[in-house]
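Progress note, sequence design subtask.
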């Protein structure tokens, strides 16, 4: 099936303030965050997946690519091989703590007990130890009966009857229209966590929320599952939808909200883009005051990442065979709150010059030594020696591997740094300063606009409202110097090395209108 068409408009190269190289809740005074952006009215999931694999991300319908040679805080695309992920001690501990909270009413009750419905405080050892099953553990809070209301186990202390267990479920719904509970939760989160001023207009606040976290250009596309319980159910039927809800699976590729319910109330939600090759984590919001603050301090960043990994695994098990990756957004070595992403292994970073993924861990010392500017991952610059002649190590910059970390019981007081695991994109809107795309040299993986031939531009399909689409050469925009320059920058941004890239002069890229390209990502139309 040929993918849906994509309709994009070039915005251009711009400079804006940065939220990463300034104190929390503030932005830099100088406009030193540099990126190229485009606007997508609609986009096939295949096209967007291709863009993510070339270093692009979206914020609402705005899709952008940082200038990795010049921007103040280089933002590297990071993705996890979800089907190869094995949770370490800290990750298992967070999951167990949450499960105990749901089943018993206390995150500390039951640690180390042999009760079959409670995760143990420490993983067992020996030949009889069952391998840790992430999907099984993720489903436990939803599938089990509350412990305090159960009399089936004598190993539970009578004191447990004074605790109040909780109900829990996770649901998926399309990102638009949003569930009514999400906007108030978002306002609360932004006010308490990001120190935003309370909105003066709820209407304006909702419009901003909707534009930022609900609107999406991705075209919903049916997912073909081969799970025996789904085979034979008609696409779009109530029976199929009900079964997918039971399995916790999305019906279509596209943009979704993943809602976390405790005792019938939404206490957190994630914004997800689901494409054929994986799940992209866009933004995450939680109520820091839920459960009297006990639930709000549960470590939602890591917990939500585990749920998203579980979604990838569940979709793959149900027959979505291409489902492999969790895209964790951007990784910025100098940003403390992003360090937790390195704990999820095996992860890879995208080389922004070649658009090839490389294992993350060997790159960390180089990223720490060269926090600005571009270097090739194939031949990174030598590491500077310390005073003692020892090269810097990644272990001092990244939390130790979860498999090597001590447990709380062994005296380690580990402080999670991801309490505000949200988006890599700053929601705050501001004036951006549009400037000309650099050429000497161009941003890594971009072409030099001076090398792009008129013949390449002439073949780009463009869309004119009321007239349909035509080659750029036949459109009235071909007579506008501004539109010609704008299209050159768009071709330069999209036709570099990597999947569906063009040659050194831009020919044959994703905007070429070539039939083979259309079969992979759909027809891409440019609108001015």
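Output:
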């Amino acid at each position: 099936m040929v993918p849906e068409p994509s309709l994009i408009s070039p915005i251009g190269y711009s400079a804006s303030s940065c939220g990463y190289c300034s104190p929390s809740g503030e932005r830099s005074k100088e406009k030193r965050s540099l990126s190229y952006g485009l606007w997508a009215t609609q986009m096939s999931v295949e096209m967007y997946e291709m863009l993510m694999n070339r270093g692009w991300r979206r914020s609402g319908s705005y899709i952008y690519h940082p200038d990795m040679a010049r921007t103040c805080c280089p933002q590297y695309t990071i993705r996890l091989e979800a089907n190869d992920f094995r949770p370490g001690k800290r990750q298992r501990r967070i999951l167990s703590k949450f499960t105990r909270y749901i089943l018993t009413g206390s995150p500390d009750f039951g640690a180390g007990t042999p009760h079959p419905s409670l995760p143990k405080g420490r993983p067992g050892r020996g030949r009889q130890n069952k391998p840790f099953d992430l999907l099984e553990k993720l489903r436990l809070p939803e599938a089990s009966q509350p412990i305090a209301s159960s009399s089936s186990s004598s190993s539970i202390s009578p004191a447990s009857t004074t605790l109040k267990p909780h109900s829990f479920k996770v649901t998926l719904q399309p990102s638009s229209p949003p569930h009514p509970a999400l906007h108030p939760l978002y306002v609360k989160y932004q006010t308490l966590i990001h120190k935003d001023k309370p909105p003066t207009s709820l209407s304006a606040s909702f419009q901003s929320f909707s534009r930022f976290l609900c609107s999406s250009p991705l075209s919903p596309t049916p997912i073909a599952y081969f799970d025996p319980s789904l085979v034979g159910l008609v696409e779009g039927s109530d029976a199929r939808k009900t079964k997918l809800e039971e399995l916790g699976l999305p019906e279509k590729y596209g943009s979704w909200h993943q809602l976390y319910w405790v005792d019938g109330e939404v206490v957190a939600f994630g914004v997800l883009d689901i494409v054929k090759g994986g799940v992209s984590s866009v933004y995450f919001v939680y109520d820091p005051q839920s459960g009297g603050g006990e639930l709000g301090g549960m470590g939602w960043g890591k917990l939500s990442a585990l749920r998203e990994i579980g979604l990838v695994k569940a979709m793959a098990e149900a027959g979505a065979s291409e489902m492999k990756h969790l895209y964790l957004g951007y990784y910025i070595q100098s940003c403390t709150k992003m360090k937790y992403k390195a704990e999820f292994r095996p992860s890879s970073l995208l080389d922004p010059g070649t658009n090839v993924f490389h294992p993350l861990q060997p790159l960390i010392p180089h990223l720490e030594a060269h926090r600005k500017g571009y270097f090739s991952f194939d031949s990174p610059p030598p590491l500077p020696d310390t005073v003692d002649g020892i090269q810097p190590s990644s272990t001092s910059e990244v939390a130790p591997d979860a498999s090597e970390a001590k447990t709380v019981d062994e005296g380690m007081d580990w402080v999670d740094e991801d309490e505000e695991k949200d988006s890599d994109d700053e929601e705050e809107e501001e004036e951006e300063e549009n400037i000309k795309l650099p050429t000497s040299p161009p941003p890594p993986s971009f072409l030099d606009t001076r090398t792009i031939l008129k013949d390449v531009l002439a073949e780009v399909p463009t869309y004119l409202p009321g007239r349909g689409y035509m080659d750029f050469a036949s459109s009235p925009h071909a007579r506008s110097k501004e539109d010609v320059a704008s299209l050159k920058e768009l071709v330069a941004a999209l036709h570099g090395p990597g999947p569906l890239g063009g040659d050194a002069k831009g020919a044959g890229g994703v905007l070429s209108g070539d039939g083979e390209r259309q079969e992979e990502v759909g027809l891409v139309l440019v609108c001015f």
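DSSP finds eleven helices and 17 strands in the chain. Work on this subtask will continue into the next period as scheduled.
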